[in-house]
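debug: dumping io for the single-chain case to check the tokenizer round-trip. Nothing else runs in this session.
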Amino acid sequence: MTIEPIRTSPNGHYLITESGKPFFWLADTAWAFFHRLNLADAEHYLEIRRQQGFNVIKAVILMEVDGLHTPNMNGHLPLLGDDPTRPNEYFFRYVDELIRLAASKDLYIGLLPTWGDKVHSGLWGMGPAIFNQENARVYGKYLGQRYKNDQNILWVMGGDRPADGYEALWAAMAEGITEGLGYKPFFTYHPWGGLSSLQIPWAGGTSSTWFHSAEWLDMNMWQSGHVLLDTPNWDMIASDYNRLPSKPVLDGEPNYEDHPIDPFMRKWQAEFGRYDDYDTRKQAYRAVFAGACGHTYGHHSMWQFWTLQREPVNFPMPTWDESILRPGAAQMIHLKNLMLSRPYLNRIPDQAMLPDVKPTPAVDNSKHFDPLRAAYPCATRADDGSYGMVYFPMDEQSLRVDLSRLVGRVKAWWYDPRNGRVHAVGEYPNEIVTFTSPIAGPDWVLVLDDVALPIPLPGLPPLPGR
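debug: decoded output
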């Protein structure tokens, strides 16, 4: 693979490379990457994530946890005197090295110039707030000039904050980056989440609340967060998928694997539990089937690269060098492989394939678990009806599936999201058919193909010309 700039697809919903190939965003969350890893550890981390199928690494230059005043692993701070117009050359040389190391492994960096607490000091985080509209533009121009030849950067504004009152500041930083680069790059914005994402109509947890019409923003991003089980990110994604003008959208911070379930709104206790690989899969498949252009995975120890020698943030476990091999991370590749094994750029969400599925019940923020949300299925298909997919979040779950939404006689498969294995089911006419997911699981994907078309097994590379 050769690193190419990333663009929006012609229909405005997906991502492609400059040469027109589909690009399925599969990101890992590595906020402290530039601060807390030495070169050997960084190489090890990137290589493992490359082998696991990730293609984007999200990392922050001015990190959340005292990123201004705690030196990186080489003993350097990012700025002189907390002044964004006075970057520390020695710190940035190491950032350069890691960005180019990622490029050598065909990995993009989802690069956050700063965490949001350096802009918006009124919420959590150490800060301090050091940016204003003027120095944000200067800092952005510096970054643009420095990285104008690095094609593996996808720029991410924000950093877990709402933009209310700071829209002009973020726009100035984006304008500075563009001026420094000398061309328009790819931009998105990482918003805040938690309960802020759960208001109806959906608002506040997405970049579209502030920037959907901004010319600099190429892709919307949600943070469904770490408060509830089965947060309805499928509805969140759908709300932005249907906005005009069309822009790609994804969940940029769903529940992290091994993250405590809601340590924010209550005093967390071990019996409250942690999100596991099943939780991460459910949020990934339902968001993508609802129209997302990819997905971001996260592990609670990995984002902070926690070791026993570091102050923990919200009860991480295990240490990062163990967490890198957690099952949820290893399973994300099967989602990417499945989506790219079928014609990708003409895919649409289609809940009409599930005639008996009712809308998501209203969210009660006092109830962390809702069985209706937990069992909520999602469907997607090609706009020409040549294939379809249904995500069954439960084993032995029976759903009536309307195969008349597809073309021709249909061949069905069960796809295992844990290991990518495929099990043939049979052939069916274009009518409503009841399917029941296998007893093992718990979750499964039903893949439906037009029998007349030469389509490979689900999860395998597409045939030439398809």
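debug: round-trip ok. The radius of gyration is 22 Å.
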